[in-house]
Amino acid sequence: MPRTTPQPWWKRIYPGVRFTPNQPTTLPHPHSLRAPPPTPWYSRIYPTSPLPHRDHFPPRPIARKLPTTTRIDTWTQSHVRPLRAIPNTLATVLWTTMLLYFASWYTTRKKVPTGPEAKLALPKPCHAFSLWPYISCVGQHEKLVFRGVCIAMALLISFSFIQLTRLTAPIKTGRRLRFTSTAFAILSSVALVALTYELIDEMPLPHLITASGQIFAMFVCKCFDWGWNMAVRRAWARKMGRWRRVRALEVSRWCKIGVAAFSVGPAIFTCLGIYGCQNADVIADQASTCNRIVALSEIAEWELSLGWVAYMCCIAYDLYHVDDVVRIWVSAGIDDDVVYEEAAKEDGMEGGNGVQVLLPLGMGRGDLEGP
């Protein structure tokens, strides 16, 4: 039996193809007829490059001369809550410092002889004086301090309320109440600045009118602010139930209740002293009723200022926690249900929890729940 020469591998795999050594082969590799080999990692990442090269890697980030995010921006973003509460906190510190300065200014004055018995007593800072001076009585002697603090207070308080209105814009419930509260806060700030230009002894009537207007505007501001808090809490209770509450809203609610309970009495006595007794001679008579009323009114005005300071602390608390309230409110979708309920009332259907409006006519929520 003749000995056969073994055929080359390409003839065994491709029997019908003629091959010569001088002919450039274009045949695929034998492994290509089987399972395809695994793709290298660099081909998956850089498909246009056969091998990973340093030129094919993404370039390293180059330090910019003017970076978009600086250290100050990073620090501001991480401390945004305290920064938002700074205006009201600063206003609280300024007003409290001014009250302490006015008290020390009056108590450290040189005593002078008064009355027929020539007893030494502190001089009267203004005509409407009985036991303790009004804040504006000392303010007319310390004009620069009084005017500077009042202007700073007006700017800080107005900015705080405008900022609170802007940050609570995603909460559609009670939006008009929030706008009204901010408007009266700005009006109260304007009246506070006007008080510094209307001295109590030189222009008593305009001063009293402006002072009462400032007190009334701040009272209305607090009422509408409380109304916004109540509207938001009720809308939340309708959707989530009474037992699931937002802590920031509840803390703000009870703090403002405490401020209102503390300030209502001093506000009434302050207005009684301002409008009940305006004759300086009658006020100077220690046996008269006006003397006692003005004495209570003067002390009540300082207590009312402390209540005002406490209310500014409540607004600072609201600004500190406003992001949490807005995030919880938006994630719960409270405003969507409120819009559905209003649409249902206009169409004469039951609002429920917002599902009734999306159902066909004649179909209720009970049809969805089943038997």
From TrEMBL:
The keyword Ribosomal protein does not apply. It comes from the Eukaryota. The chain crosses the membrane at residues 85-106, 144-165, 177-197, 209-232, 253-275. InterPro entries: CWH43_N. Residues 88-321 form the CWH43-like N-terminal domain. Keywords: Membrane, Transmembrane, Transmembrane helix. It holds the Pfam family Frag1. This is CWH43-like N-terminal domain-containing protein. It comes from Ophiobolus disseminans.
